[in-house]
Amino acid sequence: PAGLKRQTDEHLALTVLNHWDEIPRVGCKLVPEHVETRPLLNPDKPGIEQGRIEMWVDMFPMDTPAPGPAIDISPRKPKRYELRVIIWNTDEVILEDDDYFTGEKSSDIFVRGWLKGQQEDKQDTDVHYHSLTGEGNFNWRFVFPFDYLMAEEKIVISKKESMFSWDETEYKIPPRLTMQVWDADHFSADDFLGAIELDLNRFPRGAKTAKQCSLDMIRNEQELPTISIFKQKRVKGWWPFVARDENDEMELTGKVEAELHLLTAEEAEKSPVGLGRNEPDPLEKPNRPDTSLMWFLGPLKSIRYFIWHNYRWLILKALGLLLLLLMLGLFLYSIPGYLVKKILGA
């Protein structure tokens, strides 16, 4: 209702301090304080408050020594950082599409990333087309600048609550990096495949190889040793992508090889980098297999890769057996002539 002051955390804390002596065992008498609240007025608008100012007033007797210097109790200022995330590769990403020519499963893979609270600044890799094995090669860099309060372990974001707001509202949220894997579609919405969210203050160390990366890194996260990017500064490894199936069970939907590098704003300014594979400090273009091309760009190459990938051991065994039969046939063909020559003494 109009005219009533809204209870705040400050009022609640002040009430607790005023009754601190009533708390069992730890309670004691505290030095009383005095908070003055005064309205702010403008002579051009008499009688209309333009806001209020609250002051914490300390009063000291004149016959005591002068108090010490004033203590700066202004809020801590966040420090500017830059998080650089390089998506190197993916592996074992689930295959969503059925190939029109062969019926082989495939996926057009890309990875998306953002920091929590900054979804509007999400960044995507390019697309690794027609992956037949769930492997994707990217060499793609994301760059996320942010303000961080080390003492509170929170990212500070200032933005307007709505388009009609005059001033920005400050939010403090945990520093969490989200990475998602998607299947790109040309004529419909992209398909979400899986995701992983890393708390930058405490997340499991990445596996050294894709084979060692498993769902246990998520299921047993509380039991595994964790690292902080604010202490480690740079880390590289494999992490699992997960999603919920129709039974709400967690399933492995892929793996991502990523590198996280944290710099202060000053360090980032001294060694700038570009987004994606752009200058400065560009990343090399990935060496993708021939099937990265769509069928209409290279159908014969894709068919060749499809046959070799699925039947290479059968082809090698058949070639070995054919070579053995050929050698046996040559032996049987030449042995009669050799025996005749021996009998005739030639």
Question: Could you characterize the architecture of this molecule?
Answer:
This protein is α+β, with helices and mostly antiparallel strands and 346 residues long. The chain is 20% helix and 36% strand. The chain is built from five helices and 16 strands. The protein has helices spanning 9-18, 216-219, 229-232, 265-270, 299-343, and strands spanning 34-42, 45-57, 79-91, 97-98, 105-115, 123-124, 128-131, 136-149, 154-159, 169-173, 176-183, 191-199, 203-204, 226-227, 234-244, 250-264. A hairpin with a 4-residue loop joins β8 and β9 (154-159). The longest helix is centred in the last third of the chain and has 45 residues, at 299-343. The N and C termini lie far apart (125 Å).
Nutshell version of this structure?
The chain has 346 residues and is α+β, with helices and mostly antiparallel strands. It is 20% helix and 36% strand. It is built from five helices and 16 strands.
Give helix and strand order, one letter per element, not per position. Answer: HEEEEEEEEEEEEEHEHEEHH
Mean pLDDT: 86
Q: Report the C-alpha radius of gyration, rounded.
A: 34 Å
Largest sheet: 6 strands, antiparallel
How many distinct beta strands?
Answer: 16
Structural class: alpha+beta
Number of helices: 5
Biggest sheet: strand arrangement: 10-9-8-3-16-15
Q: What is the end-to-end distance?
A: 125 Å
The residue ranges in which pLDDT falls below 50 over 5 or more consecutive positions are 292-297
Helix content: 10-25%
How much of the sequence is in beta strands?
35-45%
